[in-house]
Amino acid sequence: MRIKSGNTVKEEKHKKLITAMKIVLVISLIPWAFTLCVSIMSFFAGTDAGLFEATTKINGPEAFLYTMVMYLFVFMPVFVISAIAALISTIILIVIKKNGSATGKTPAKVIMTCGKICSGKSTLAQKLRLEYKAVILSVDDITLALLGQDPGDKLDGYVEKLKAYFFEKSVEITETGINVILEWGFWTKAERDQARKYYTDRGIAFEFHYIDISDEEWDRRLKKRNAEVTAGRTSAYYVDDGLKAKFASMFEPPDESETDVIINT
Fold first, then answer.
1. Residue 174 and residue 14: Cα distance in Å, rounded?
2. pTM for this predicted structure
3. Which of 34, 96, 132, 139 could lock 179 by a disulfide, CB 3.0 to 4.6 Å apart?
């Protein structure tokens, strides 16, 4: 189930604004295009120049300029309004493009996965990586690679330092126009609020994707993971009953106002 809020709504408004400005630009150019076409026809077919009954047949460049000037004079209000509309819409499109990526797409964003341990965040991150052509920054990947299954008492300190580093690195990556996925749990409301403020202050678009897993499914996945860890088929952390109880007590489920996408499993 998808719930649109925050930055998702902003992106939709961004796209609608671009479409609207392009439509305004095209419509505003119609009077000019029509006059140009008529003037070109006059160039080849000729036209009557003059006032009232005193007219002279002209053709070529003279007929082209005469027709162009007459249309501009007669329909001057229309051309003035269309010129202003074209100028404003062009300026808006230029500003949007400068604020976006070099290709005119919406700016790069940060997607944060939220959910309990072993709820499917890594799988979701891989799916989003392909969908958004994003870079995944994962705390577990680093700690497991460097510290293994028994990181000791210093793990919490390492985790906090890694998160701080990944926040800074995500800003650098989005500045190059590449999306970023922060793949860890964001277990507490305070941590989510901090992340939201961090990116808001820097003008970076962000989304929270929350995996809402049932207790039964969570138990099943934990047992499956532990079996795979024991068999050496995965490098994820083994979660015993003590750690499971600790993680469950620490996790604060986000409400709908905190999330952009909710995935029920």
1. 18
2. 0.63
3. 132
The pLDDT of residue 51: 54
Q: Give yes or no for residue 49 having a pLDDT over 90.
A: no
CB 144 within 8 A of CB 151: no
Give the integer Cα–Cα distance in Å for 23 and 101. 21
C-alpha span between 169 and 166 (Å, rounded): 5
In angstroms, rounded to a whole number, what is the distance separating the alpha carbons of residues 262 and 204? Answer: 21
The whole-number average pLDDT for the span 224-238 is 88
| Cβ atoms of residues 182 and 137 within 8 Å | yes
User: Of 155, 13, 194, which is closest to residue 96 (Cα–Cα)?
Assistant: 13
Q: Say what the pLDDT of residue 101 is.
A: 43
Q: Which of 13-17, 74-78, 104-108, 161-165 has the highest mean pLDDT?
A: 161-165
Read off the DSSP letter of residue 257: G
- The secondary structure of 42-100, three-state, reads HHHHCEEEEECCEEEEECHHHHHHHHHHHHHHHCHHHHHHHHHHHHHHHHHHHHHHHHC
Contact 248, 186 (CB under 8 A): no
Q: Among the listed ranges 9-23, 27-41, 202-216, which one has the minimum average pLDDT value? A: 9-23
- Token digits for 236? 């994820």
The whole-angstrom separation of Cα 191 and Cα 73 is 64
The strands making up 135-138's β-sheet, listed across from edge to edge, are 135-138, 180-183, 109-114, 205-212, 261-264
